Structure formats: structure tokens, C-alpha cells
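quick one if you have a minute, typing this from the bus. theres a chain ive been looking at and ive put its sequence and its fold in C-alpha cell form underneath. please have a look and point out which stretches look like helix strand or loop to you. anything you notice is useful, everything is just below.

***
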Amino acid sequence: MRPDTPAEIVDHATEAARLERTAGLYPEDAETLLLRAAAHLELSGDRPAATTLYDRLLSSSAGLANPALVRALKASNLWEYGHEAEARAIIEGIRTTAPRDPAPWVIAAEALESHDELEAAAETFTEGARLLIPGPAEAPLASTHPLLFGRHRVRRMLGLPHDDWDTLADTVHTGPVTLDELHDPKRVWSLGSDEPAELEAEISRLRAELGAYRAALSRPFPVAVLHWPAPELEELLTAYPTLSTEYPSHPEHLATIESSLRELASSGTPNLGIVTGTVPSYEAFAASEATSPTDPTLLPQYATTLAARGRAVAWPPGEGEGCWCGVGRPYQECHGAN
């Protein structure tokens, strides 16, 4: 259950408890699962309990994949129930450490924006954009688009003129309604209009904005293809040689992944991804299913389970991003070359 599911459909407190229990069963996925649990707690109104989960992650002896993201979420949550000073200090710390992931920048800036700190929000969006995007003349990675869109929105609210970064945001925006319309501060006044045409136009804009927001923040679980790195595949076939019929060689395995994903994409299947398997994880999954690891029908189930646990990486990689196979070359120069 995703945290954006309407409250009338899901009991957020119960879902948070379920995710906490699942995190205990899969400690390697605890960060992802506990962050989702904290989101449900926030939606349930139990913000102190959400902070407790964020603190639990930050104090964990296991290294976090994205500690800056956890701190940003904690700051945003704290500010919502009266801990403004602590939230500001955390946000300032995030800006000082300059994380190389756009998500903490976006969350910190939006926290400032939601509390009418528009100048500070614009500065934070700008710092993140300058750090993570080569320049306003360069094509940015898709993951950095929220930085550009947020910056554009806040500057529009401040009444500032367009600059090169705003132009870049307009360029990468693909929605049916332009950013200038979506971010027009006067839109709120049209909601009080008695003119049906104005109200209908504003509803159309809001639908477009909500659709883009939900698509960016709450993607459904992807259709995932299972990838075995070379050492893992060698270990798998050594332990279970009958699976060699599924994996004749590692190069052929990689080629099959790419061709399968391209075939799915050409058939119109959306939201494709790749999950990376490990032998211990696969064996544990087989045991949980009371099935032998030699059963080839278990492999797609394993891939689906990894995707449901948030382990999928979107395919295809964006322009300039590394290839999914892990060799270190850009995707367009590796499996995406043809």
C-alpha cells in the first residue's frame, strides 16, 4: 500500500505497523520500509511517532543509503507540529553538507515554501540545481526536474523575472499546461470566480498539476526484470546447476534483459525496472515460499518481490546515467547503444 492511498481506503496507523514488522524481517530493506511507515504515520496525524522512526534510522548502526533524505523528511515533519527551530537547523545542515541527491534539496525547500519562507526556499532550490545540474544550457537528468519546477514555482510567487534556469524548467516540462500557468499566483483568485469557464479552466490546470505531482512522487511498483551480476550468477549456477538452462552465460543474460525490456516498452508496458538479485536473498525467498531454489518459476516471483520492496531501478537510465549492468559506462554507450 502506497502512502498516497486515500485515508478512507487504508488505516495509515495499521499500515505503518505492518511496514515496521516487515522491516524487522528484511533488515536489508529497513530504510525503505521504515520511511514508508513514517509517511503513513504522518498521514495518520501521529507526527511524533514519525519523528521517532526517523531518529531510529539516523541512529542505526547500519549505514543509510540516503541519510540526507531522512534528515530532510524529519525536518519537514518536525516543522508541522511546532518544532520550527530544530527543523530550520536540520535544513541548514543539509544545505551545508550539499548532498548529491536532489530529493533532500526538494523536501527541504518545500518545507520552507510551505511555511512562507519563499526567499529561503528559492535559494535552496537554486543551490541544489547549481550543484546537481551542469548548467542551464545542459539537459538535466529526470531526477533533478523537481528542483527546476520547484524553483520556477517559488520565483513565480515572488514575482521574479524568468532567468536561464526558469527557461530550462519550461523546456523540460511536458505537461499540457505551461509552468507559467500552473505557477501563476493569481490562480487562487479564479477559484472564487462566478464564471463557469474560469472555474473549468482552473480545474483543468489543477488536474494536470496533481497528475504530474502524483506521477513524480508515487509511482506504482514497476514491471521488473531480474539481473544477476557476474559473481552472483556464477555462485547461483555453482549451487544450482540446473538453472543454467535459464542462464546459459552472463553476456547472454544481460542481452536478454535489455531485449526483454525493449519488447515490453514497445508493447506499451509502462514503468519498467530492473532488480538485482543476490544468492543469499534468493535462497531466503525460496525458503519463505517453501520451494526449492532450483525451481525456475520462482525467479519471476523473486523479481516481483524485490520490486515490491522498493529495490527496482527504473529502466531505461536517463541521458548520461550509468548502464544498469554495472560496468561503469554510460547506458547510451553500453546496452543502450543500439
Q: What stands out?
A: The mean pLDDT is 84. The two ends are 37 Å apart (CA to CA). Strands lie at 223-227, 272-276, 313-314.
